[in-house]
Amino acid sequence: MTHQSTVVQDLIPASADGIEVRLAASRNEVRAAQRIRYRVFYEEMGAKPSAAMQALELDFDDYDEVCDHLLVLAEGEVVGTYRMIRRHAAAAIGGFYSAGEFDISPFLAVPGEILELGRSCVDARWRHRGTLQMLWQGLAAYMVEHGIRLLFGCGSLPGTDPETLAPQLAYLRDNHLAPAALRGRALDGRDSVDFATIDATWDARRVLATLPPLLKGYLRLGGTVGDGAVIDHQFNTTDVLVAVDTAAIAGRYAKRFNA
């Protein structure tokens, strides 16, 4: 389920205020990550838990058993997490999580290692730049160690009303649509939004002020979005498929982590 990563564990020192980043090393640490996910997604953001999740106050699914869990720890407690799924882990469970919403065949055709990201969250008390920087440093180290060629996953906009989100979706379509060779599409049969049908004007400054920080971070790294969006009623979000070519990211950290 989890393993220690030499790069993530040993080559990222704790921050000045004692924040540490590493992979989960035990089932208890995975449960701590699931507990934070429950607080953020279900109690704070209004997602709808199953009866079992509600009883345990944990967010969990079968992917948790095969993925790597990146953790941020402060004062000895897990305060942030990222879920990371590589090809072999996806194969062990029958496919990537985002394949339940999007056609990701363009990503599967990319040579080399690819990495699906999901379930990113930070406890409200620790939701500041230092924590987020440590989380991204851990991700960068993991990418270098495993030679990740492509990052991808569902980027979530809060809410499930396409009309309310039309300016954001139109902005993403008009400015960050993936090239055809790397353009996943919303699956037929899902509660989806066809980008071609969106008729909305947008103001870049206003839209960027409303996009979730994580999605904006991907865009700053050159991230692109697939064609269409999927409404996720369980998580009370509207999802776009995000992809990031990791060459530019890894280049910044390669010397540091390979020294």
Question: Would you give an account of this structure?
Answer:
There is one protein chain. With 259 residues, the protein is an alpha+beta fold. The chain has 10 helices and 10 strands. The chain has helices at residues 6-10, 27-44, 51-56, 87-93, 105-108, 129-146, 166-176, 204-210, 213-220, 247-258, and strands at residues 20-23, 68-74, 77-86, 102-103, 113-122, 148-158, 185-186, 192-193, 224-232, 237-245. The chain has an 8-stranded mixed sheet, sandwiched between helices. Strands 4-7 form a two-stranded antiparallel ribbon.
Beta content: 25-35%
Number of domains: 1
Strands, total number: 10
Poorly predicted segments: 253-259
CATH first level: which class? Alpha Beta
Q: Quick recap of the structure?
A:
With 259 residues, the protein is of the alpha+beta class. 37% of the residues lie in helices and 25% in strands. The chain has an 8-stranded mixed beta sheet with strand order 1-2-3-5-6-10-9-8, sandwiched between helices.
Key features?
single chain; 259 residues; alpha+beta; eight-stranded mixed β-sheet; globular
Q: What is the strand and helix layout of this fold?
A:
Layout: H1 6-10, E1 20-23, H2 27-44, H3 51-56, E2 68-74, E3 77-86, H4 87-93, E4 102-103, H5 105-108, E5 113-122, H6 129-146, E6 148-158, H7 166-176, E7 185-186, E8 192-193, H8 204-210, H9 213-220, E9 224-232, E10 237-245, H10 247-258
Parallel strand pairs: 5-6
Antiparallel strand pairs: 1-2, 2-3, 3-5, 4-7, 6-10, 8-9, 9-10
